[in-house]
Write a structure and sequence with these properties.
The complex is a heterodimer of chains A (117) and B (114). Chain A is an all-beta fold. Chain A is built from no helices and 12 strands. In chain A, strands 2, 5, 6, 10, 11 and 12 form a 6-stranded mixed β-sheet that branches. Chain A has a 4-stranded antiparallel β-sheet with strand order 3-9-8-7, with no helix packed on it. In chain A, a hairpin with a 2-residue loop joins β7 and β8. By secondary structure, chain B is mostly beta strands. In chain B, 0% of the residues lie in helices and 49% in strands. Chain B is globular and about 40 Å long. The chains are: A mainly beta (117), B mainly beta (114).
Chain lengths: 117, 114
Amino acid sequence: AQKITQTQPGMFVQEKEAVTLDCTYDTSDPSYGLFWYKQPSSGEMIFLIYQGSYDQQNATEGRYSLNFQKARKSANLVISASQLGDSAMYFCAMREGHSGSARQLTFGSGTQLTVLP
Amino acid sequence: EPEVTQTPSHQVTQMGQEVILRCVPISNHLYFYWYRQILGQKVEFLVSFYNNEISEKSEIFDDQFSVERPDGSNFTLKIRSTKLEDSAMYFCASSGGGGSQPQHFGDGTRLSIL
C-alpha cells in the first residue's frame, strides 16, 4: 500500500485565489511527521511546512497552512492568495518513528500546481 | 540562511565508470541523507547517515553504492560501476535531529549515464 497518496497530478488556480493540495497517508506508527516540499522547474526541493502527529493545532507558515485531519489521515496543504511564483510541483512526505533518529522521508507522487494570471 | 551545497550540478559519465557526488551539509546538522529522483517520478530514499555510520538504507542502495563522510564537512555518495538506470537527480539532505526538524535539501546533482 502507498504510504503517501497525492491524488491530484495537476491543479490550476487563478492568481490571488486559495488552493488546496490533497495528501493522505498510511501509517501504524503513533509518532510521525508530515512535510510539504515545493519543487520549482529549476529542480531544487524547498521545505514549506511541517505537522507533527501530536501537534494539537494545524501548522501555518505565512501563506501556507496545513489542514491536518488525523482521524482521516489527511494533511492537505492550503496556499492562500496564490502567486505566479507558486507554480511548481508540490510533494507531501512523511517521516515515521520517534524524534531524534535519522528516519527517511517517504514522498508522494506530487501535484503540479499552475497559477494562472 | 545556511544551505546544503551539492557539486557538481550536472555529471555526465560513461556506463561502468565510477562517480562521486559531493555534498556539504549545513554545519551544525547531525543527520545526512541521499535521495534520488528519476525524471518525472517521485523522490526515493537511498540512505541516511548518523554518527559516522549508515542509519538506514533502501533496497536501491545496493553494493554499488557507498557513502562517506571523509572530513568534518563533506558527505559523499559513490556509485562504483554506473548503469543506465542510475541516471537521475540525486539530492543530499541534512537535518538537525528532533522530530520536527525538516530535512533541508541541496539543489541536486543531475547524473546522466551514457
